[in-house]
Amino acid sequence: MKFLQQFSDELESLVAKAMPAVVAVQHARGHGTGLFLTPDGYVLTNRHVVRSQGRLTLELHDGSEVRAELVGADAPTDLAVVRAEDGAKFPTLPLADPHDVRVGQVVMAIGNPFRLEQSVSMGVVSAINRTLPLPDGVILEGLLQTDAAINPGNSGGPLLNMHGQVVGLNTLVLPYAQGIGFAVSATTAAWVASLLIQRGKVERRFLGIAATAITLSARSAQEAGQLRAVRVMKVGQGTPAADAGLEADDLLLGINEWPITNVDDVQRLLALATGPEVRLEVLRKGQRRTLRARTTPREYSKAA
């Protein structure tokens, strides 16, 4: 019983510390949730929460309201940043290190499901690196799966670990299932939010591949010098990837000397590239190769 009481007390403390940084996001056509990323009022939420035109209002933990404006949104990750017009100093929530997110980890979702403000649910990280196609053709990649209760209105709210760090941004549930919810990982949220705050958009560069993240065999891991990589499934004809000599079944290890372990890394490094040419580190049939691709800018893309 002592253990249960201690666990309960720690959960209460965690909620009390996290709740002030969570806001309700309201507009003419609906509502959702968001969280303060910076003390000067930048709020991270889902794109589908704020994509309708019109006034945005943030309802704070104490019940007060402030107006907000859209800073930028990114369809391929369903993320958006808005900024509170009030110049007050706001409480924030830290993002978790990706290496600290593991299957089986206890997590907590905070949000406003069905306008039930400041609701809390608990579960575990059920899986990582899930890929989910949406009805509009967008493919969300690198998602966390959780059995913490997520309902309409939870979208944009934090999925927290027991250290009070955001491991993901609650995004959607499968309507025909129970206990299967998904969150955009904090890793994705960090780089997308940074670009939205700096530039107002994420300008992606088109490479022209279909790919999937894999865990390497012991032999391949020794040859690659890393445990995970991205396997190229298909190379589009006439694309920058084809022109560079990339082939199906190549293992993509790095871009511009930065290692790659999942498809989100590919999207991130292409978006952050400062010039059109990128350097690709590839493992092909046990041999390392360096290829150079001249990528083309594409503001919206459903593939790498």
Automatic annotation (TrEMBL):
The Swiss-Prot or TrEMBL record annotates one GO molecular function as: serine-type endopeptidase activity
Q: Which Pfam families match?
A: PDZ_6 (PF17820), Trypsin_2 (PF13365)
Listed InterPro entries: Chloro_Bact_Ser_Proteases, PDZ, PDZ_6, PDZ_sf, Peptidase_S1_PA, Peptidase_S1C
Keyword annotations for this protein, in alphabetical order, are: Hydrolase, Protease
UniProt superkingdom: Bacteria
Renumbered to this chain, the signal peptide range is none
GO terms classed as biological process: proteolysis
Query: Which SUPFAM superfamilies does the entry link to?
Result: PDZ domain-like, Trypsin-like serine proteases
Domain (PDZ): give its ranges. 178-286
Name the UniProt record assigns to this protein = PDZ domain-containing protein
- Species whose genome carries this gene: Cystobacter fuscus (strain ATCC 25194 / DSM 2262 / NBRC 100088 / M29)
